[in-house]
Design goal:
The complex is a heterodimer of chains A (48) and B (387). By secondary structure, chain A is mainly α. Chain A is built from 2 helices and no strands. Chain B is built from 9 helices and 16 strands. Classes of the chains: A mainly alpha (48), B alpha/beta (387).
Chain lengths: 48, 387
């Protein structure tokens, strides 16, 4: 599993499938910081 | 044409599945069709790892195989003809039957692009060879190219009408190969290539979106899958900060007010291509309304206000108006909307605002400003088809 999986998901499972616990800030910040790069790759591929 | 591997972990599948289930969505997972054996048949060994895991978790999900096979050669250098892809679907169909969890799983495909010449040929040969094992035929549609689209394209009746031709082409091919098979839009939006910047995420995108929903229902396309809910580009319903955009609010209103039964409707005194009219039974799960009520939705592509009069048999009915107008000085290029004069925005991270109606007294005319759209629930209409 990835860093996010470990930090977020595995701790989440015992909340029950729809247990709404907010995502750890570190994971959210990591994902949001990765998003602009991801979006560029996706857009390049989609347009291609 | 170089590709690097990517890994989808079990946890990622868990997160995806829980997102779908907690949002009361049905998950359809698209498998990679480009993994090939020497003789060019589909190599399902990788897919089986995923099927094994999802079956072990008793995940209830549906499946697809491949995305826009009409451009496989251009994108990957691998050419798969429709007949081979049909056999691959038959292979997947029998594979699914090996799992008790997937005995009743649905299978959709082939997710071809717009029905141009070579795509029509591929779709025809696919349906001839594998059409019997799919539950619905899926295809993709975009009106324009995101890089060249203009504001005028988004307001053009002619551009909206091109969708009718595309639907007719697909329905004709399906009718000639697997008659009676359901046809769905597996991926669709305003403009391809990530959307049209400063257009696809604004109020003006609502004309294409609402018209596509109206025409799809009228022409027998029961499911329309929007590109995208959240993600790259500008055609998303929710932006990168999880803020709903105009098409999100439009979709929410549509789901709250519009039922699945389509009624015939006519227009006199204006060009129906510019004043576009749709009529459905009202959503009978909406506790505010009752059986027999009908929902009219109108798109005004004139650059002047249009006043619509209901026919005499509806003259004495009470009407609830849901008029969506742009909010802010960018007008139809704004990214925020107002419903009956109230700006729509989230109450907090999790709470949607109330969708407040505006009651109109019997006999009122429906005033639709230039370049606007709205919904009108006609109460107590007692439409036979809706009871």
């Amino acid at each position: 599993s990835t860093l996010e999986d470990r930090d977020f998901w595995e701790s989440q499972v015992n909340q029950g499938i729809c247990g709404v616990r907010s995502i750890p800030t570190a994971v959210e910040e990591l994902l949001l910081s990765q998003w602009p790069i991801q979006e560029k790759i996706l857009l390049k591929e989609q347009y291609w | 044409k170089k590709y690097k591997n990517t890994t989808i972990t079990k946890s990622t599948v868990d997160i995806l599945y829980s997102f779908a289930k907690c949002s009361k969505l049905d998950l359809i997972f698209g498998l990679n069709a480009l993994l090939r054996k020497r003789g060019l048949q589909w190599d399902s060994s990788n897919a089986q790892l995923l099927l094994d895991y999802c079956a072990s978790q008793h995940y209830n999900m549906s499946w697809e195989l491949g995305n826009e096979p009409n451009s496989f050669r251009k994108k990957s250098g691998i050419y798969i003809d429709g007949s081979q892809l049909g056999q691959d679907f038959i292979h997947l169909y029998h594979l699914l039957r090996n799992y008790s969890s997937f005995k009743n799983s649905k299978l959709y495909g082939p997710d071809v692009g717009q029905p141009r010449k070579n795509t029509q040929k591929l779709l025809k040969s696919f349906l001839k060879s594998g059409g019997k094992v799919i539950d619905s035929v899926t295809w993709h549609h975009y009106y324009v190219n995101g890089r060249h689209a203009t504001r005028e394209d988004f307001l053009s009746p002619e551009v909206l009408e091109t969708f009718i031709t595309a639907v007719k082409d697909v329905l004709q091919i399906v009718d000639g190969t697997v008659p009676g098979k359901k046809v769905w839009l597996g991926e669709t939006s305003s403009a391809y290539g990530g959307g049209a910047p400063r257009l696809s995420n604004t109020y003006v995108a609502g004309f294409m979106w609402l018209d596509k929903l109206g025409l799809s229902a009228r022409m027998g396309i029961d499911v329309v899958m929007r590109q995208v809910f959240y993600g790259a580009g500008t055609y998303h319903l929710v932006d990168a900060n999880f803020e709903p955009l105009p098409d999100y609010w439009l979709s929410l209103l549509y789901k709250k007010l519009v039922g699945t039964k389509v009624l015939k409707v006519g227009l006199k005194g204006a060009d129906p291509k510019k004043l576009r009219v749709y009529l459905h039974c009202t959503n009978n799960h909406n506790p505010m309304y009752k059986e027999g009520d009908v929902t009219l939705f109108l798109l005004n592509l004139y650059n002047v206000t249009k006043h619509v009069q209901l026919p005499h048999n509806l003259y004495n009915k009470h009407i609830d108006e849901y008029l969506l107008l742009p909010h802010g000085e960018q007008h139809i290029l704004s990214r925020s909307v107002q419903l009956n004069g109230h700006v729509l925005r989230m109450v907090d991270n999790k709470t949607l605002p109330a969708l407040t109606k505006k009651p109109l007294s019997p006999g009122s005319t429906l005033g639709l400003p230039a370049f606007s759209y709205g919904f009108y629930v006609i109460k107590n209409a007692k439409a036979i088809a809706c009871i």
